[in-house]
Structure formats: structure tokens, C-alpha cells
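note to self — DONT lose this again. spent like an hour looking for the file last time. sequence + predicted structure for the chain T wanted, 363 res
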Amino acid sequence: MAKRVGVDKWLFGTVLLLVLFGLVSVFSASAVIAKATLGSPYAYVIKQAGFALAGMIALFVLMRVDYRKYNNPKLIFPLMAITGLLLLAVFAWGGMNGAHRWVRFPGMTLEPSEMAKPMIVLFLAWFLQTRIHTIDNLKETILPAMLPPLVFIALILKEPDLGTALVCAAVMMLMLFLAGLQMKWVAAVAAAASPVLYYMLFHVSWRAKRMFVFLHPEADPRGSGFHIMQSLIAVGTGGIRGLGLMEGRQKLFYLPEPHTDFIFANISEELGLIGAICVLTAFCILGYRGMRAAFLSTDPFARFLAFGLTTIILVQAFFNMSVVLALLPTKGIPLPLISSGGTSVFVTLACMGVLLNVTREID
């Protein structure tokens, strides 16, 4: 195929649109809270804008770096080691809200689990490109492919962060499935993971309570069911057209985390079903263009890389929107490129830079 002169303009435009819309949404959802708690309505959006700007710089730089340079174990394994050390380093800092998820530096925090997701994709893309014909070999391919990601997943579970661990596990299994892993092995992995997931959900007291709340949020609407009920009220109040930008009511100290985990609820309240569908459409376009790059690529490494990076976005968006709509139990998973979260938006934009470079090779 002839080498493309430019990147995928649809993908680039969609990413840029989501980032800009995310900044507007963060300001709308956080202004009142930021004013009350930090003294300035712009506190959260300025911080988000700073990370978004840094992320866009990373996107433009990585968009021009040939993706083949990442296909090198001398680069991949040191990056994997650094990510693993950062995942261990979170336990050296005091917990926040009962979790150890951040490495703190003066003036900023870093969430290593956000870095773990693209590193799992990069490792699997490198490892699987030459193992397609032996994908069902347990000792040569399946176990060596799964071991490093499972170490990351175990460390993320220890933080604890079950939501991000499930995202990592889903991306890992989807990439193995793309490589041709037979359904019997997928079923075997699912069966092996089921007891661990069952224990995590039903034998950890606060998660078991969360599962009960998910099934019966109306049983304690002012207590444990508060998150879900307020989210559903926000979505329902928006109706078809919404209350108008900046006019949402649930963000006024009713809806918890309106600028992070539940920002989609605030969007639905202010912009209604129309706004929610527009956001969903944007993610569908991003997913389509990313998958198009993956399946049109003749380079196995590029195919796995594009597929994995796109899957990270789609799986996170699915989990976040499903939580907001009470289709899944509450998890702390941000809406990619939209939710407030510095590490998340920076890493996601950097990943999109790599994906855009892959699209240069597609006619």
C-alpha cells in the first residue's frame, strides 16, 4: 500500500473535539464545587487544561514518531519495569479515600495504573506479532503473554482498583482473541478468573454492599444508594434537550464526583438525550477509525497496537457510561478525554498520537 502523507483526519478531529468538549464539561460540572472548596471556580478546569495541553503536545510529537520504533524489546522491557516500580511505589504514600493509587510529586500526582494500560498493549503487540501461528500453545504463547499483564493487574487490584483491573483484563483477552486464541482457552481463563472475581465482589465487605446497592439502590437512597440514585435523577431530569449548559442542578452537591466518574450524568442533565447521543457517537467514530486502522494494516505489530489502543478507549467509555446509567455497579473509571483527571487525559492523548501515526500507513 502507498504510504499516506497525513494522518486520519476523522480520528484526529474526533479526539480534538472530545478534548475541547471535555474541558467545557469539566468547567460546567466543577465550577460550583471548586469555588466552594478551593476558592476559584476555575481550579479544576485550569488543571485539566494544563494536562490536556501537555497531552496535545505529546500527541503531536508521537504522531510524527514512526510506530515501528516501539517494536523493540530494549525499549519495551525497561518501560514495563518502570511501570511496575511505579505501581509498587503507590504503596509508599499514604492512602486517599482508602486507596493507594497515586504517586505524589510537588504540585501534581501521577496515577501509574493509567500507564499500565498502554504498556500492556505495547507488550502484547510486540509479543503476539510472531506468535499468531502458535497462539493456542499454553507454554510457548498463552502463559508468557499473560504473565506480565497479570502482574500489573494484581498490583492494581491491591491498590485496590477493581475497575481499572477489569479494563486491563478485558483489553488483554480481546488482544489474545484477535491473535486467534480459541474460545476454549478464553472460557478456561474466564473460569479460572471467576473465583477471584467472585471473592472480590462478594467477600470484600464494601464491594458486597456495593453489589447489593446496585441491585436495590432504592433500599437506601440517602446512604449507600445515593450515588446511583442521584446519577439516575440527573440523567432523567435532562430529558431530550437538557436543562442547558451550566444549568445542571445535581452537580450542586447532590451528584458525587460530577466532574470525574459521573461527568456523563451531568452532560446528560445539561444537554439531554441529544447531548448524550452526540458523545456516544463521537466515541463510535473514534472506535471505528481506530479499528479501521487496525484491520487495514498489513503489519501485525501495527494491527495489535492500533486494536489495543482503541480498545482501551472503548472499554473505559463502556464501563463509565454503564455505571452512570446503573447498568453496572459503581466503579471509579473516568470517561476518556472528558472526565477530569490529569494522568488519564495525558496518557490517552499520548496513545492517540501513536494510533494516529499508525494511520499514516493506511490508504
